[in-house]
Specification:
With about 300 residues, the chain is mostly beta strands. Helices cover about 5% and strands about 55% of the residues. The protein folds into two domains: about 5-180, no CATH class; about 190-300, Immunoglobulin-like. The strands form two sheets. The chain has an eleven-stranded mixed β-sheet with strand order 1-4-5-6-8-7-9-10-11-2-3. Strands 12, 13, 14, 15, 16, 17, 18 and 19 form an eight-stranded mixed β-sheet that branches. A hairpin with a 5-residue loop joins strand 5 (about 80-85) and strand 6.
């Protein structure tokens, strides 16, 4: 075996190990990726010339009807990863990426190099799995249809691709077709602050309240700061609460702010800042809403 052949074999082994570790660690690796979604309708097919390292010269076909297909798009819409888990134990990952800083759209992408190491104006491409991957590659792909939803959600993808490992002539060629349901709406939150509150003569705490709204059932965390000035003394106290929000009627929240110093909250006007936050269950991204209001505290004995 020549030194060049040994180096190439070592590079292929190292690349295959890297692909295996990526998938074992939890799935699709995308730049700024959204939450991976299962493909409801789709197929991935590919085959290679004799001498192609990835396919071994064979042909492969997978369908969402019998195999597991997952897709994840980057939040900037620049890249798509398709994960394949075959019922026969096969596993593969296909990556298609537009040149850096651009959106992946319908069209032809020539001069592709290995994703995610494509830089500058080069598109990115990579198909690997079953313990095999290219150390370097050249190739091209063509997208006839791609439909994006929010946060990298992929509604549709129709593409063909061709890659050559290590600068070799043998090619791997394939196609991917994906059709998913329309993207779910983004999580929308609203938060309001009631204009009346309470100042406890017993504990010195201020009680503030309000309402939250949402368009999906979520757990909403409400937190903020109450600020009051009395006789040139600055009184401040944080507060927090958590409520289950459901679409429809506003849901009430209430919390106590404990003064951070020795001076208690007193009857009179305060400034209340609040932030409501929740995790969008469809896209696994955090959503917040903010509000500031002047609130009048009345003194209570408890």
């Amino acid at each position: 075996m020549t030194q060049q052949t040994m180096r190439r074999a070592f590079a292929r082994a190292a690349t295959g190990l890297g692909v295996a570790l990526t998938l074992a660690a939890g799935g699709l690796a995308t730049a700024g990726a959204a939450h991976a979604q299962s493909v409801t309708e789709g197929t991935v097919t590919f085959g290679g010339d004799p001498g192609d390292y990835i396919s071994g010269g064979g042909s492969y076909a997978y369908s969402a009807a019998q195999d597991r297909l997952d897709v994840a798009g980057s939040a900037d819409r620049g890249q798509v990863s398709v994960g394949i888990s075959g019922t026969n134990g096969d596993w593969w990952t296909l990556d298609l990426a537009a040149p850096s800083g651009t959106e992946l759209k319908a069209g032809a992408y020539a001069g592709a190099t290995r994703f995610p190491f494509n830089g500058g104006q080069a598109p990115g491409l990579s198909l690997g799995g079953n313990g095999r991957g290219c150390n370097t590659l050249t190739g091209s792909f063509s997208i006839s249809k791609i439909a994006w939803g929010p946060n990298g959600y992929v509604e549709a993808l129709d593409a063909s691709y061709e890659q050559h490992c290590e600068g070799g002539e043998p090619a791997l060629r394939g196609q991917v077709h994906i059709k998913n349901p329309a993207a779910p709406a983004r999580l929308s939150l609203g938060v309001g602050i009631a204009v009346d509150g309470k100042a406890s003569a017993l504990s010195g705490r201020a009680t503030v309240s309000g309402k939250v709204t949402c368009n999906k059932p979520v757990r909403v965390d409400v937190s903020g700061l109450v600020t009051q000035v009395k006789r040139n003394v600055l009184i401040r106290g944080p507060y927090s609460a958590s409520v289950a929000c459901v679409p429809g009627a506003p849901v009430a929240w209430s919390a106590e702010a404990d003064p951070t110093g020795t001076t208690p909250f007193q009857a009179g006007d305060v400034e209340v800042k609040t932030t409501a936050g929740a995790l969008d269950p469809d896209y696994q991204v955090s959503v917040t809403a903010n509000e500031v209001a002047a609130v009048h505290l009345v003194r209570v004995k408890r």
